[in-house]
Amino acid sequence: MQPLKTVWSPVAVLLLLGYLAAAGYYLFVRFVTAWDLGNQAWYGLLVLGVEILGITSVLPYALMLLRYTTQTNCKGFPKDNGRTLLPEDKRFHVRVLVPCYKESLGTIEATVQAALDAEMPPSCKRTVYLCDDGKDKEKKAYIETLAHSGYGVEYVSGRTRGAGEINGKSGNLNNCLRTVIYAEYDFEAKPASIPATELVVVFDADMAAKRTFFVKVLEVMWDEETALCLTPQSFHNVDAAADIWNHVNPQFWQYVLPGCDALGYVGCTGTNVCIRARCLAQAGWFPEYTITEDYALSMELKLAGFRGRYLPEYLAVGEAPDEVRAVTRQRSRWTKGHMQVFFSGRCPLLQRRLSLLHKVLYTNGTWAYFATIATTYMFTLVPFVSLVFGWHPVTFSRPFAFASTAYLVAGAVLSGFVRRPAHSRGMWLSGVSNNLLAFTYLKAVVNTLLAKAGFKDTAGFKATAKKPLAPLCAAVAKIAAMSITVGRTMSALWTSSISAAFGHGGAGGFGNRRASVLASGAPVVVGPSAAADAFVTVNAHTAAAAGRPKSPHRPSRLSVELPSHSNSLRPSFDQPHPHIEPTTLNPRAFAALAPGPVPAFGDASDAAHTQGSAGAGEIVVTDGDAVHCWSWAAANWHSLDGALDPLAIGASLAISLMAIGAGAQQAVAQGTGFSLADIRSVAHIFMSGRMDAFMLLAMLWSAVNAIPPALFFVYWWSKGPLLRWCCTIGQWLSLLLGAAAIACLWLLIPAEIDPAAILPSALNFLDAQRSGSALHAAPAAAYPWLNASGVLDPVPGGFYMAADYVKYGPPMASSMALLAWGLVEFGGGYEQAEVRTQALDLLAHGTDYLLRCHSSERQQFVVQIGDPEDYVVDAARGLGSWSGPGNMPGNRTIHLITNSSSGGSDALAAAAAALASAHSALNSSRPELAAKALKHAKELYSMALNVQLLNSSYCGAVVPCQGAAVPQQDSSSSVSGGAVAAAAAAAAAAAAAGDGVSAVHWVAYPSSSTYDDLAWAAAWLYKATGMSAYLSEAELFYRLHLEHEAQLGSPAGWIPSVDNMGFAAGVMLMRLLPGSLQYREVPAALLRGWMLGKNNWTEGVTQATPHGFLWTPSPAPAHTVAAVGMIGLAFAAAEDAAGRVRLVRNMECWCMKQLYSLTGGEIADGTSYIVGAGPRWPKRPHHRQASCPADGSPCTVTTALMSSLPNPRQLTGSLVAGPDAYGGFRDVRSNAAQLAVGLDGNVFLSGLLAGLLDRNVKPGECHGGRGFFQNMFLSYAP
To answer: Cβ of 972: how many Cβ atoms within 10 Å?
Structure first.
């Protein structure tokens, strides 16, 4: 006889392999990227540790899914002529123990009566023992009445409870076994002397056996090697579709225990269990050292070498606690019991007789409590911390998106794996239950540890409160009604299948029907034999509702008396019970019975409770009472008895809701100016609202976290259809939110920007602007089409600023000073990118040119070579010079500043600053050049102070910085020289005559201030020489700049550039005077204005485009962003050096964010303004040499500038001017306002990149938004 078999699950094997692969890759990615979080790496590792804890609790469960125990098509007991014959050694004596304490008599009656009514094979004996620790006289009288009527029942009570008793239930049961049932056996010395036919069955006081309980269980116990047979539990008062406390727990009964049984685990849950008495004796009877005697007994039996089996068929129905306090007290008791074992000498991990596998299995339940506590609270707090405090435990990247998607999907599929779709709701509800009970578990663990430490009394067994079992009586009534209906054919049904009595497949059976139980005021009467399948019956309309013919022998009222001879209602082999007179059952058991639908056993809606292989259904009868919300809530409230569990659940809900609110507030605050008209993609919606990936994902996560506690508060008010409806919504909402979170991972992947990869290209562009000698190896490889240029200039060398071939002295000098500043301030960044030598070469090239431009003897300085009007073009008419340096206009005019010049102190000061800063940067590698640079810097600075008008710019006084010119026909065209001259003359005449060929206005690097340049130069000279006179002058000129030149009252005043060096000078003074805060104010206001959009002087410093680019009314907005980024990092370094570190990381991360805006946005869904970086970059920068045809054909306005083709020669690393105020950007070469490139822009970009590297600004620290707390209560900007 083999009623059970073990089978493999190939699907589960594949799922486990997939989960292991996904989890392994995920943990690898998480660990590697955790270090990118910088000083928050500890937080990321902490969360990772909790994730690993969760994985360790999943793996044992996955192991249980691989093989599982199921039922066979066993025909049952041997049969002969329709009657079962049992050999002598299989004629069992079943001792049914029903322990009780303070349960109501109605509850006890239902349990005892069901145990007596259940079928028993012939030659087998049954004795029911009511083990009453409460010494209840009514219960004693009830048992004595049954005993006098001939039933095999006994009342056992009167034991003495020992001092410090931990488990009263075990003591109660052991008292009955030791002193009553097996008192005559020498079980202490010879436990094997108890016959193998002696079986002990335990039913909790609220568990009513189905009629087939014993015949099913005894099939399993037929094998003497089997010490125990466990069956699952079902509950009449639980709606499986709204079981937020996981009473039904299909995961445990349908997956965990079948899997454990296949792995050799002995499972015991304290009720509905049959145990061989001598095995129980050898294991030391029921353990009394813990309040979870069932868990401990299962391990003790395994340690004793016995084998247990799990029969996956629901054979008893009971009542689950429903009031909140009763539920939490029950789960607290379970947790404490496991902890008592774990923190004792009986810990499974310490038992040598257990294999490693069984050590894991017996520890898994306890370990799961720890994992649930840690993961529930950690994963509730993580999104809250992200949204409120701005701390993120992970860094977003494409590998992370892939790893987390694979891990989450694999984990969800594995955890939600079901063999029957109807179980899916129960699987989800098990997660809900764990979330709600996390505080209960935590409290139980803490109390257990306090008890172990002696600070608290050891927890004892507290029975779960039970109400009078009116609903359970109704459930048993269903059994009775069914038994009466099919009793006459039971013998025939038995020959085919015992479980067929429940009619699962038939149209007229109970399988798909619902019946109603109607109440009346009359007492419920039991007929002559309480064992005659019923102690309450239903009226005729109940039978009709169930699809059965109406019996003419049944009266229409609820109370009936069954015929005294009821043997015909059970199989012929069942032993008859003695006749008893009609007895009115305790009316208290039916006080709550009211009209309402009660699901039939095995109803389709309760398919989650049915057992698959045998086809028998689990008994689940829901109470149809419409409990009023107020009375139910009041009952929950009054039963709390000071318990804090609801407050903890409420706190969990509040945390999630506050997190969502914090995220929404930030999205609203940051999304000012949001316009749907600008949206171009789904991802763009979030970026337009300035909601970054962390904010969105955290809000989705918080919404998922809010579902379980929200369901709890629905349950607090109602257990009815409202709760079921909310559970359905909650399950689907969890699924949708989870899918949205995974989509968020992919839609909002931050761009992968590596400053070290961009910095070499940015410096290569500076080399591409070199005039004079040929390029060095790195830039020559990047731009093989570039050749030496300007070698015949009056002063060779230097750099071209932009697309033309004019060498503008002041902006070039300021660019060199900024390059030197970057090398001095962020030298480590250049080292990391392995370009420090190249940067020093560039600086040396510029320094050498500036030295050539200055003549100490003549007291003159070459401020400019070439005229910008020679490069003016009229793109519409195809006029102007647009060619390579080999065809540059021959007019290379030299503009000089001398002692007799009326202006030019700004140009001279810029050159002095460049040379003085070069001294600081080059002193260690090129000392001779550095010394020479410092000498000329002093002379140029003195010359600047001696200019006739100190505050007069070189623009206008020395060099025209703007004007109007008529574009000339390009000399590189195919027109002959005479024709060129004629065309030029004709164009000039036409312009003079007003014939439509007008002059084109041009502006070339104007200078609007001088004091800033003087302060900048004096500061560098002080740094190079240490002479206090220079420092005093730097301070003086800086104050004059703020008083007379700085336009701090308008947005234009907050645009740093080579024309506005005041902010750079202020940061230099901060560095030189770290204890003085007066020079901090304006640079700090610059950062504050850009970081917040406004400062104390000006509203609307910047305007954010839809992609988050901070636009200003600058000639080159992208260059300005790079400039502010570089100055911001220098400011942060100065703050750090002065010990003001609180906002340093904020500023550094903000500067990193500016790099993202320059490379296409944080999710790379925009246009990059750095050629060669990001997803999409300009293909047509406004640059003469790059646009010339690669085949050597003539390069003209028509063939190059106006061509719609991408540049034949790519200017990798160049920074274009940037978008308009609304984010618009046209990649058209003639659009110089947006596609212009320049030396100054790339110097600022190089400084920004080097600063990010030097300051070790990691993307992981800066991805995501700021927290609500920082926004509301802490300063974000300086």
So the answer is: 19
